[in-house]
Write a structure and sequence with these properties.
The structure is a single chain. This protein is of the alpha+beta class. The protein folds into 4 domains: 159 residues, 3-Layer(aba) Sandwich (Molybdenum Cofactor Biosythetic Enzyme, Chain A), CATH 3.40.980; 58 residues, Molybdopterin biosynthesis moea protein, domain 2 (Alpha-Beta Complex), CATH 3.90.105.10; 66 residues, Beta Complex (Molybdopterin biosynthesis moeA protein, domain 3), CATH 2.170.190; 68 residues, Beta-clip. It is 19% helix and 30% strand. The chain has 7 helices and 25 strands. The strands form 7 sheets. A 6-stranded mixed sheet has the order 7-4-6-5-9-8. A hairpin with a 2-residue loop joins strand 19 and strand 20. Helix 1 crosses helix 7, helix 4 packs parallel to helix 7 and helix 5 crosses helix 6. The radius of gyration is 31 Å and the shape is elongated. The two termini are 29 Å apart.
Length: 396
């Protein structure tokens, strides 16, 4: 009996515990999932520093100076040096942006705001205490949580960790996904087609989808022909070399659709056979040696949609992602869907903007039409699909 899409996803997630963590170089961690909270071990900056090129003044001068007051420049401080003399009343140190400030600095005058004459510095106007100073810990206070477990490491988070001197970061291992395509008619790209044959496009489609989901695709060397023994051997190979197996094709009940027979031969435990949604009614999933095996219909359009709504959330769970849930929202259809279905169905679409802060979903009624705007998948209830209707959608 077919189950709902939601139940199918939930069943998959129950078998998708995060993989073992590993330390990797911070510069290789983009889009990986953190496996631990990270607490800032230092303050950034670790000292009071100048926010401008200018002149440092002490508290006493700052409070008493007028337009006729002058200061004697006693030194120059460059960024990166700690050899900075203290300043007293009547003295100043020329500081560069990012330089450590002399002890006793109350404010920094910008270089362009002062007058230099006869070897003396005339600040002119008054400044507020703390002006043009970046105090210790103002960027990153010591002890603050910079990164939470289960969060995607983006460029900004990586930069924050680099500020704290981090070289290695603990992340969850990328899942390996073994991709099998069944069918005697399939030929690898680069080979010469014979009558009745087609090229292996799902192989490339699934490899790209898996990689975009943060996992590592592992391609079967050749397509599994419609022979039970060969399909069984490929599934066994996938289980031994990867964390998940995806099989496209062989979901029907024809003489050449032998995936279920192969799973039975392996004594794999069935999770479901059929999802109550189009496409997906012939899709199935099983577990063998604690690894998930998905069997999708062979049409590329179906494979693409089902990967997004059925398999991608499970891959995120394997990576330990805590904040990559499917976010469905409501949107108005700009145009009608071709062939409105009497059952629940998935459709491709793109988000377009028809006015300020006004978005619509434009259905893509042909697999050869690619989104020019933001790609969507639509979850249409039975009978939905007319222009102007409010439907459920998700960004992909």
């Amino acid at each position: 009996m077919a189950i709902s899409l939601e139940d199918a996803v939930t069943l998959g997630k129950k078998w998708a515990n995060p993989l073992d963590p590993e330390y990797i170089d911070l510069n290789e961690a983009v889009q990986r999932i953190s496996a631990q909270d990270f607490i800032a071990p230092i303050s950034v900056p670790g000292f009071d520093r100048s926010a401008v090129d200018g002149l440092a003044v002490c508290q006493e001068d700052l409070l008493t100076m007028d337009e006729n007051s002058s200061l004697q420049c006693i030194a120059q401080a460059m960024a990166g040096t700690s050899l900075v003399p203290d300043i007293c009343r009547g003295e100043t140190v020329r500081v560069m942006t990012g330089a450590m400030l002399p002890r006793g600095t109350a404010a920094v005058y910008k270089q362009e705001e002062v007058i230099e004459k006869d070897g003396l510095i005339y600040p002119g106007r008054k400044l507020k205490p703390g002006a043009n100073i970046q105090v210790q810990g103002s960027d990153i206070p010591i002890g603050i949580k910079l990164l939470a477990k289960g969060v995607v490491l983006d460029a900004e988070r990586i930069e924050r960790m680099a500020c704290c001197g981090v070289e290695k970061v603990l992340v969850y291992r990328r899942p390996r996904v073994y991709i099998i395509n069944t069918g005697n008619e399939l030929v690898l790209p680069g080979k010469l087609l014979q009558p009745g044959q087609i090229y292996h496009s799902n192989r490339s489609l699934l490899a790209a989808k898996v990689a975009l989901a943060g996992a590592t695709p592992v391609l079967a060397e050749v397509g599994a022909t419609d022979e039970e023994q060969l399909i069984t051997e490929e599934i066994q190979k996938g289980i031994n070399t990867a964390d998940m197996v995806i099989i496209s094709g062989g979901t029907g009940s024809g003489l050449a659709d032998l995936v279920q027979e192969s799973l039975g031969k392996l004594n794999a435990s069935s999770l479901f056979k059929g999802i109550d949604i189009i496409p997906g009614r012939s899709s199935a999933a099983a577990v063998y040696k604690s690894n998930l095996i998905y069997n999708l219909a062979g049409r590329p359009g179906a494979v693409s949609l089902l990967f997004e709504v059925l398999i991608k959330p499970v891959l995120f769970s394997l990576q330990g992602a805590l904040h990559k849930e499917q976010n469905w929202f409501e949107i108005i259809l700009e145009a009608p869907v071709k062939k409105i279905s009497a059952g629940r169905c998935l459709r491709r679409a793109e988000m377009i903007f028809v006015g300020p802060s006004q978005s619509r979903a434009r259905p893509l009624n042909d697999w050869n039409i690619f989104p020019q705007e933001l790609p969507l998948v639509l979850d249409l209830k039975p009978g939905q699909g007319k222009a102007g209707e409010v439907v459920s959608a998700m960004m992909i």
